[in-house]
Amino acid sequence: MKRAIVLLSGGLDSATTLALAKAQGFDCFALSVHYGQRHSSELAAAEQIAATLGVHEHRLMGVDFAGIGGSALTDARVAVPEVSSEGIPATYVPARNTLLLSLALSWAEVVGASDIFVGVNAVDYSGYPDCRPEFIQAFESLAQLATKAGVEGARFKIHAPLIQMSKADIIRAGQRLGVDFRLTVSCYQADAAGRACGKCDSCRLRAQGFAAAGVPDPTRYR
């Protein structure tokens, strides 16, 4: 089986991405990252999802975005927006996907994987610049230039299977593949038990997705 690294945050999108990678026959290595986000309940969710869907290995790594700040997700002094706004929201974490994909690329070299899966989406999303197709294409080019494996002929592929899907389509795909959405945590300010606020941008997009998909919303709200 071909090996793949799958970035697994514990949310709805990354869980569906893992299920899609497995459905394509990849031997999956799941990578979750504690980057200083407001809560760790999504990481506990990631552990459950990895165990439920079955992965070769699930690894948790840590970096310190909280030490840099500049985002409502990593700086307690910045409030998480609870109403829609124009432009890139305060929940944007500077260069987060660049760093997460770099960690995945590093692990891919070590385990001999040429495929990396990430659950970014450019349709029903918050407008983050590192969720766009242009970014994924640019990082794939970087992977060829920045690694020993790439220089020696390996062809890295960054898979973003959800990038052009609506949230409703993602939910339908996950449901077909047996993803237990009750385990997932998407809220930007979930409590220690993983219960959602129901007010942040991520909660709104998630709720709208379940409604549009015609699937009962299993989200636990506080």
Could you give a short description of this structure?
The chain has seven helices and five strands; from the N terminus they run E-H-E-H-E-H-E-H-H-E-H-H. The chain has helices spanning 12-23, 41-53, 96-111, 133-146, 148-151, 167-176, 201-213, and strands spanning 3-7, 27-34, 57-62, 115-117, 157-159. The longest helix has 16 residues, at 96-111.
Note down, in words, how this protein is organized:
The chain has 222 residues and is an alpha/beta fold. The protein has seven helices and five strands; from the N terminus they run βαβαβαβααβαα. A five-stranded parallel β-sheet has the order 3-2-1-4-5, sandwiched between helices. The N and C termini lie far apart (42 Å).
List keywords for this structure.
alpha/beta, 222 residues, five-stranded parallel sheet
Write the layout of secondary structure elements.
Blueprint: E1 3-7, H1 12-23, E2 27-34, H2 41-53, E3 57-62, H3 96-111, E4 115-117, H4 133-146, H5 148-151, E5 157-159, H6 167-176, H7 201-213
Parallel strand pairs: 1-2, 1-4, 2-3, 4-5
Helix pairs in contact: 1-2, 1-6, 6-7
Quickly count the helices: 7
Please give the radius of gyration in angstroms.
17 Å
Mean pLDDT equals: 95
Span between termini: 42 Å
Q: What proportion of the residues form beta strands (DSSP E)?
A: 5-15%
- Share in helix: 25-40%
